[in-house]
Structure formats: C-alpha cells, structure tokens
Design goal:
two-stranded antiparallel sheet, Double Stranded RNA Binding Domain, alpha+beta, 13% strand
Length: 497
C-alpha cells in the first residue's frame, strides 16, 4: 500500500509540472501568468464573405467595416463640424484638423502630420523612393494610387461624370472640385484675409502668401517657390524642355495651357465676354481685370501691390514681378529659334518673332498704318487724337509716351546713359546711339525707291523724297513762304527778324 500511494503521488506531481499547450499554465492550477487569448490559424482560409462583392475576411469585425462601403453607413460623426465617417480612425484623424494636433513628425526636416501614413509617404521624398512605375512610359510614383491615376492618361479612361453638365473626369477629386462650380460652394476660408477656396490644397498654397513660406527649392539655381507645380515649370527652363509646339507658327511652350492660350491668337477665339459692355477676351484673367473698370473694385490697397525685393519696383501682378526678377538674375529662358536672341518674357519673344515673319497684325483704323506690337498702335493713335498725357514736371512739356518723357528728363538731368564704344560720344536715347553707330559702320539702311540713294537716318530719307516730289511742307509764319526742307526755314525766319 505504501508503494502504491508513493506511485500515485508521483503521477500527480508530474501532471502538475506539465503546462497546458494553450494557456501555458501548469495543468490543474490557476496560478501563473494570465492566459493569452487563443489565436486561431486562418492560413489559406477566410471564414467571412461579403455577399455583395464576394470579398472574404478572416474576422467578422473586418467584414462589418467593409459592409459600410456598400450600405453607405457612416456612424462616426465629428462634433465640431458634423462630418461623418465610416471608420473611427478616420474620425480621429479628421478631429486633428480642428485641434491642430500633428503627432507624427519627420526626423529629417521636422515637418509634422496628422496621420502616420502621411508621414510614411513624406519620408519617401527624402529617400527618393518611388516604387510604383508606369509600364507604358516608365514614370515612377511614391503612391500606388498616383500610379493608378496616371494610368488613366494612357487609357483615356474618365469614369467620374458630372450629373449636372455631363463632363467627365479621370479622378474622383477632380469631379468633386468641378461640382463646386455648379454649387458655388467654397468651404475652405483663409482666416487671415477671408478669401475662400473650393479645395483645401489651394487654401494651403494660398496661406504661404501670408507666411512667406517657399518650401520648394530648385537644386540647379537655388531659387525657391511657393508651389511645387511652379518649381516643375521652372525646372523646364534649365532643361530647355518645351514639349508643346504650335503647328501654325512653330512656337514652343513649357506647358500645355500656354499652348492652348496661344492657339486662340491664331484662331481669333475670345471666349470670355464682358456682360456689361460686350468686350471679349482671350484669357479669363483679362476679363477679370477688365470687370474692375465697371465695378470700381480695387482688390489691393495700392495700385501696384507686388514689389521687387531687390530694387523696390512695384507691379500690378505676380507674373509681371516674376518676369522682372529675371532681370536681376540675368535669366532669359525664352530663346528665338531663328536668331538665338533670348528674352525674359513670352510676350517679348512673340513680338520679336514678328520681325522674322514680317507680321504686323495691329492696324490703325484712321490711316491704315500697321504695327507689330499693339502698344505701338496705342501710342500711334495719339498722333490722330493729339493726346499727350505725360508731362515734364520741370518745364511742362508734354509727350505721347512715358519713354519719350523719360528720354526728355535726361536733358534736365544732363544724363546720357548710351555711350558709343568707338568714339566715346554719349546720347540721351538709345535710338540716337544706333543712328550714330551707322556713321562708324558706313551703313545707310534707308534707300530712296526713286534714285536708290541711301541715307543714314529715316527722317533724312523723308526730306530726300520731297526733293523728287517737289512738295513744300515747311512754311514761314511771317511771310508764308514755303520750303522743301526743314533746315531752310530757320535761316529764312532769322532774315525776316
């Protein structure tokens, strides 16, 4: 009996020393660490299937969340703005917009984010990682959804259609933005100036105007930009890339919208019409500026609100300021394909191209004279109207253009900024220097069609032609005698005194 009791006791102790393979506790006891929840293995097996799309899930709660896609159920509502969400984590992320909380910070540049996934995407900027590549053109992307959106360019697919006007879009967000045109909704408002926007991204870009932030930097020249899209456009200047070419005149552009706008000059299309006076414009911004004539609106406290930080000169628009800044940077990204001359502005290149084509599209309705540049026509029209709106503050003499007034002011200032490199003689006006240079070069570019005589100056040619016609244009104010040439009149008048 003693031996039997000993054997039974030993069996009990051995069993107690064995541990349960599930709870990891000693069998027959409740002591030890708390039991872990048993995990089931679902390898190659999904237990819960969606009856709407046949998608399967390993857990019931995952299926429940998925079903909200089909039912449209959004049980989680923001108490601040009333917006609803399908998942709680989406609400948590949204709430941070109101609280301003950004708990996920980049250790490289210090930028913070409301969601961890946004930080993950952002980190790829520093690593340069773009794991998703287009098999059609080889372009790579940081996010898979960016690649999916890009692929629609190749397929031409536009699955999102506006129910109001029927216009279709490749991206759902583009449709959402488009719908605000019909609704007039601009839910994102700048707290600094009160201006409203249809998209949060546009508001964020706008805020940089107030903060002065320019986070996008060109690695070639170091210039910084407010918007990433502006940096992309700028980079094309360094690469000389101009992929969009006009089939009519051969002029090339860095961006497709610029080509579309340019084509309207050939077609004469002016789709933007003022409802007040009926005047039409090629681009919408021109109509917007024109409307201020009727409304009297002055959106800026000063007439020229955009100032150059280098020289202080002010401009009416940011585009004019940008063009002006190229003067300081000696940047002339626009080159004439015919003669190689470079320009800071697209319109200057366009005006220059007419020298090669001989095109003079701007015609005076009074005398029929044609001009290459619209501004030159405007100045010319003042000959017929007699208008001289620019007056000298020193002597009161008036001029048709600011350039003439500027040249005149140099007489009072004794300023002669244009100097001949051959003889050192200086001039107040550049055209006077050009005429003077003809003396050194021996050039006589103005040829008489009657006798083929060449002269240096255009006004000399006019006087020469009068010799053939016999016209007498210059009359004495004392006796009425007429002279063919202007230089004969002062001598005659002196003899009458």
């Amino acid at each position: 009996n003693l031996l039997l009791n000993f054997i039974n006791q030993t069996d009990i102790e051995q069993k107690q020393n064995k541990r349960c393979q599930k709870t990891k506790r000693p069998k027959g006891t409740t002591e030890g660490p708390p039991p872990k929840k048993h995990k089931k293995s679902y390898l190659n097996k999904s237990l819960y299937s969606c009856k709407s799309c046949d998608k399967t899930f390993p857990r019931n709660d995952s299926l429940t969340r998925h079903m909200r896609i089909h039912t449209g159920e959004k049980p989680f509502t923001c108490i601040s703005c009333g917006k609803s969400f399908s998942h709680k984590h989406s609400l948590d992320s949204h709430t941070r917009i109101h609280t301003g909380e950004k708990p996920f910070t980049c250790m490289t540049c210090g930028k913070s984010f409301t969601e961890r996934k946004c930080l993950t995407y952002h980190m790829k900027i520093h690593t340069g990682e773009k794991p998703f590549t287009c098999i059609s053109c080889g372009k790579s992307f940081i996010l898979k959804r960016q690649l999916a959106s890009h692929m629609m360019i190749h397929t031409g697919e536009k699955p999102f259609t506006c129910i109001s006007c029927g216009k279709s879009f490749s991206h759902k967000q583009s449709l959402a933005t488009h719908m605000s045109i019909h609704t007039g909704e601009k839910p994102f408002t700048c707290m600094t100036c009160g201006k409203s926007f249809t998209e949060r991204g546009v508001l964020n870009s706008h805020l940089r105007i107030h903060t002065g932030e320019k986070p996008f930097k060109c690695i070639s020249c170091g210039k910084s930009f407010t918007h990433q899209s502006t940096l992309y456009k700028h980079m094309k200047f360094h690469g000389g890339e101009r992929p969009f070419t006009c089939i009519t005149c051969g002029n090339s552009f860095t961006r497709k919208p610029h080509l579309v706008t340019h084509m309207k000059f050939h077609t004469g299309e002016k789709p933007f019409t003022c409802l007040t006076c009926g005047k039409s414009f090629t681009v919408k911004c021109s109509l917007t500026s024109h409307m201020r004539i009727h409304t009297g609106e002055k959106p800026f406290s000063c007439e020229k609100p955009f100032s150059c930080g280098t020289c202080g000169k002010s401009f009416r628009s940011t585009s004019r300021l940008t063009s002006h800044m190229r003067i300081h940077m000696a940047e002339k990204p626009l080159t004439c394909m015919t003669c190689g001359k470079s320009f800071t502005r697209t319109d200057h290149l366009g005006n220059h191209m007419r020298i090669h084509t001989g095109e003079k599209p701007f015609t005076c309705t009074t005398c029929g004279k044609c001009f290459r540049i619209k501004f030159d026509l405007s100045i010319h029209m003042r000959i017929h109207t007699g208008e001289k709106p620019f007056s000298c503050g020193t002597c009161g003499k008036s001029f048709r253009s600011t350039s003439r007034l500027t040249s005149h002011m140099r007489i009072h200032l004794a300023e002669k900024p244009f100097t001949c490199k051959t003889c050192g003689k200086s001039f107040t006006r550049k055209d006077h220097l050009v005429k003077h240079m003809n003396l050194h070069l021996g050039e006589k570019p103005f040829i008489c069609m009657t006798c083929e005589k060449g002269v240096i100056h255009k006004n000399n040619l006019a006087s020469h032609i009068i010799g053939h016609t016999g016209e007498e244009h210059f009359s004495c104010g004392i006796c009425g005698k007429s002279f063919t040439y202007e230089n004969g009149l002062p001598v005659h008048e002196d003899s009458q005194m």
